[in-house]
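My current task is to audit a protein record that another person submitted. Thanks in advance; the entry in question is below:
***
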Amino acid sequence: MPRSQKPRSPLGAILQSLTNDNSQKRQGGNPNHHHNRPHTPRTGGVPARVPHTHGTHHAATPTGGIAANASAPASSTTTPSARPQNHQHRRNNNQKRPHGSHGARPAGGAPSRFSRPSFQYPEHKRRGKAPAHPSTQEGHKAPAPRKRTGPIIPPPAPGVIRIIPLGGVEEIGKNMTAIEIGDDIIVIDAGMAFANEDTPGIDYVIPNTTYLEERKDKIRAMFVTHGHLDHIGGIPLVMSRIGNPPLYSRNLSILMMKKRQTEFPHLPPLNPIIVENDSVVTVGAMRIRFFGVTHTIPDSMGIIVETPHGWIVTPGDYKLDQVDGIVTDSEEKAYSIFDKNKTLLLLTDSTNIENEGYSLPEIKVHQGLETIIKRIRGRMIIAAFASHITRLMKVIQVAEELGKKVVLEGRSMKGNIEIAIEAGLIKPKKETFINIEEVDNYPPDRILILMTGAQGEEFAALNRAATKTHKKFQLKKGDTIVLSASIIPGNERAVERMKDGLARQGVKIISYRTPGEEYVHATGHGNKDDVRWLHRKTNPKFFIPIHGNHYRLQLHKELAMELGMPEANAIVPDNGSIIEISADGQKMVVRKEKAPSGLMMVDGFSVGDEQEVVIRDRQMLAQDGMFVIVASVDQKTGKLKKSPDIISRGFVYLKESQDLLHEARQIVKQSLEENSGMQPANFEVLRTQIGDNLSKFLFQKTAKRPLVIPVLLAV
């Protein structure tokens, strides 16, 4: 956005004068591109708000799916994956909004000028501005429909209810579940998971959408329980692949999804519709209602699907608002809808099923942080998840009451607070916020910095401060760091390295494990007693545990059985399991067929579930390196023209491996001589023979399996 233009959000106005020109430049696209086009063609550019809805929504017009990029072995040629053209997804701006969305009102808005996207392509994949996406290039053909390779999955029989967890049940993250009844499908959540050691070089992973792409004409709506990335991170890519159906959620969640959508200018705009906790909507022949739940982010909600045999209930991520095991009146009221209604099926969170007792209430953390903020005499840096908006709002409120200046450091921290202000959840004073460069202009005890990076992320603000690579901020002896977050499994080493770097600079570190300290963190997921309470309150006939790896799901099933659930009525699913409740509502079974559930990997501009070859090659490169042989070969006789050249990376040190290289050249020569009888030379056969022989030889000599790449030059 040009500097002279009025910011589009309240926080942008507060910090407009505090942001230098460099922070205004968006990487990966034109920021003005989004301001000049409607965000939601169905509702004139703004989401509809639905207080009570009884209309019917029809599925979006089907569009072509995005073809996966299947990488070939290194010796063969690969071609870029095709993408759908933008015009295939767009709708007419004059198209009427969906039925049942009466009561629509403007909500949300474009992100402010200083915020960067919450995800950007890695530096090596973008050089300044992101390249034009294939879908925006003229003359680019739409991809052909994806060919079905697995068994054909028949539609559900009349009256049968089909439930398909497509993500989040073999891991923690990328949650997505589809519910199919008759000719209607609804989808609940579309999250993401970050890459790990099994997916080197991948940006992140989204749920597999193949089952939905093949049935996009039946998809009536997407429902989102709350605004955390493990529930909304895949929304832009998933929605474009499944026909861009109407998107229902609470106001804050809608704003966060619209913010994330701006990072994907080549994809169609969302069709958001805001609902309230007591809203009721009808999509196709399915009637959906909602209820409020307690989580670490405002506007979290549970979802209820009405069926002739009772309700299908999923609360999303939740814990109870309770003190010493006594649930608050407001929480009791929110769940009172289950007292007089029958629950057919419960699908619920298993994240903390190993933890005894109730989850620590968030109010205890608020009290603990307030006590620490009042006690500390010096600069205070609080590192927390940027998605813990409720906690961040409380910290800002306390800082204002004490006359402290607040610094927001980290793009996701700035973006989420901006959205909270835009949603009206917090109304800070203009003078509360200052820029990170201004902290030295105030007494240390008047500075409070909210930073990202509690998990030791390499490029997050706190880790850059710990490694002294932060360009605008340096820690000082006497500073206090509060790590208001637990350590996600797998991040232990990164957090320890970061804490070492912090300690070397003479700062005091307070974490949730610091003995004798106040509470500084509480989980947003229910412990065993929270889960027991929900099971007793809903009293479901059937149960499917979700949101957790298989071990946690199994523990959750055992807890349900302890509460009286028959074992036959509880099923532990895998991603892609097709679970059906019979037409009479008396039996629940798992079909032998499975929906495709392979990893849908986002790798730069490539999105697909057919990149196993790429991942395998990267793993080989990481483990044993590469070995390239370049040989000039007579194209008529297949004989070697001169001694081959050898290039090695990450395998052996060439200067100290001359004997090995000499023998490798002899292997190449022998392989060519063995096939010299072919007239003319078949280079594909020669390449395969050399690769196989070299791989065997190198393993025998070094016990390593480098990626062998034979390159034959025809002379």
